Queue: 2 jobs
Job 1
Amino acid sequence: MNQPSNVRKIALLPGDGIGPEVTAQAKKMLEAIASHYQHHFEFSEALIGAAAIDATGTALPQETIDICLDSDAILFGAVGHPKYDKDPNAKVRPEQGILGIRKALQLFANIRPVTTYASLHHLSPLKTDRLEGVDFVIIRELTGGIYFGEKQTSTDGNQSSDLCIYTREEIERITHVAFQYASQRKNKLTLVDKANVLETSRLWRKVVQEIAAQYPKVEVDYMFVDNAAMQIMMNPAQFDVMLTENMFGDILSDEASVLTGSLGMLPSASVGKATALFEPIHGSYPQAAGKDIANPIGAIVSAAMLLDHLELKEEAAVVREAVAWTLSNHFVSKDIDSVNFYFTSTIGDLIADYVTGKIPGSVKQENIELRKSTII
Ligand code: IPM
Ligand code: MG
């Protein structure tokens, strides 16, 4: 009885900006889960992004790849630093860290669930009635397309190109992932592409149409990306599983996050051949770094997806319950409420306490109030 279950190795890649702060909250929650459910999580921290460039000269040291390969799951924060954004000539960039790890581990499927919470509906720029029933998942191809095609600049520096390239095999493997998701959800799949213009999009349509025959229960529709960008705002409840290529998925998932009230809310899982990686979809938000004001929910729900991946379903469910509890009791960060907000670490503490069963029973409101913004 109460024997610790197998050791699960988790690689922690906090990265830059708010990455370390939000990852710390997710780790705190995972440690609380481990102690409460008698699991043994072993964390190994590794460098990535600007932090890795500063320490080693490269955004993705080999040691980081090795630690990831040797782990059961990876928890990633964010990468990016303004000094590189402002310098188009920079040879090394923090983003090479995350792009490199996705490629090295062949994490070709990026799962981005768009979950809305009734208690945050008022923060969305959309009218509340349009948010009713919104619950979809964007399945973004993550290791191909224009992100990874050949890049060139002419010797005189006056012409550049980025090749958008997809193979049938790359499309097939992610299409199966998307159909499997749709089969477990509302049996609806929307392929988002630009098949009226792009050859790669026409290959996507062809492959998806062929594979659709293997999933007769799933209703498939096809939407051009410009229309999809509009439909996410006009009628987001129509979507169930949205399948799309790398760059369209990057853009549409930031757009979709607006429905939830904040970019800080959205989690993601990247799965493929080697160790799966879990990360909030937001960036490094350097303006907020070190201030304890970032929204930890995207990172914490990403860690819930990590628990699901480790087959710890009950634990993942309790984390989601904890998140819903903090939101509905208005324990929210500054991006959600710029006046009455709680600190990143306080929200993390509350979630850790919730998953260990300490709350809602014994919340000491006065103690929490002390960790609240003093602006009011
Ligand atoms: C994301 C990010 C990354 C991407 C950046 C940091 C390279 O925007 O995960 O959505 O473009 O994929
Ligand atoms: Mg993005």
Job 2
Amino acid sequence: MVERSFVNCPFNQYSFMFHSKIAGIGKYVPKNVVTNHDLQKYMDTNDEWIQERTGIQQRRFADRVGETTTTMGVEAAKIAIERAGTTAAEIDFIVFATLSPDYYFPGCGVLVQRALKMKEIGALDVRNQCSGFLYALSVADQFIKTGMYRNILVIGSEKHSFGLDMSTRGRNISVIFGDGAGAVVLQPTIEEEQGILSTHLHSDGNHAEILAMYNPGTHGNHWTEKKLADFNEAEISDMFMSHSMIEKGQNFPYMDGPAVFKTAVVKFPEVVMEALNQHGLKPSDIDLLVPHQANLRISQFIQQHLGLGKEKIYNNIQKYGNTTAASIPIALCEAWEENRIKKGDLVCLAAFGSGFTWASALIRW
Ligand code: UT7
């Protein structure tokens, strides 16, 4: 194990680069199982449509009271910390990815710091939706590589169920999403060929409004190309949040599903290949691909496009739905718990979603 003395040293005092490794991983999903049939109580949908278009059979919804994005993240974090052989008191930094934070501000990172009674460490929130966990992982990786920190807690957690339009109006989105959390602890390793080999982050904001939750927000409807004169006084004063927005369901997420799908199936394989190419590797070198669980059809397309056998891709969207920033750490944790990942395996993580943002990470376990 490396010496503690380099902690908080802005420059690595050693002549070599550290890699970061996932030293511990944990997940938490709420107890409450919501089947496709259960959703029929609220909206015009059916099990056949949902399974055929998405592969989802059920998802978990958090308790309305007492269970939040932060509390779920904390539960996943406790497991990751214990499995990393460390304690909350030893964590040097928190990176928390979510699109469904407990509060508009402050972020969930500080709430984790409080809940786990940690030292007065830095706590950073990442807002990159489905790619959020990989963005968070990449940030943490850089801090480990420079020698700045040695124990970083990275969390992806979502409580979607609080912010979904559960009427027929919102069915194209609401049937997809579920709640849950995953967490990892990153630590430095000096073992060559172990740990995070590289991360790859991308964005294209031209499609920001295709998959988004606009309100409450400070956008002032600028993207509608309306001028100030086009709005009446009440509309101007209520632009952050209003009764009319709520009546029209404009406080819920919007998604042009087919447009997102079309870009996802291009960007997923592209960013996996980018990671492999950087290391002179081929798809057949991957032992396990863990994609963001957006849609089983998207995962199957990626698998076929890359020529991977079914055993080389991990999917659990059937059980949990799409848990956005939590989906990769939940899937990675479950794969690890099922012994689908062993030491030395090449694991590839990939994500695509709102922003658009997309990302990948290549890990030698
Ligand atoms: O993780 C973030 C990134 N997100 C994604 O990657 C999602 C990508 N997109 C998708 O996964 C798919 O577009 C969806 C699963 C969201 C939708 O599947 P689709 O095959 O693209 O359906 P669609 O939106 O084109 O809708 C087809 C039909 C429509 O009816 P009409 O106009 O053909 O009569 C919808 O009204 O299906 C209807 N529909 C539903 N019917 C029953 C939409 N949602 C539902 C529903 N139940 N829940």
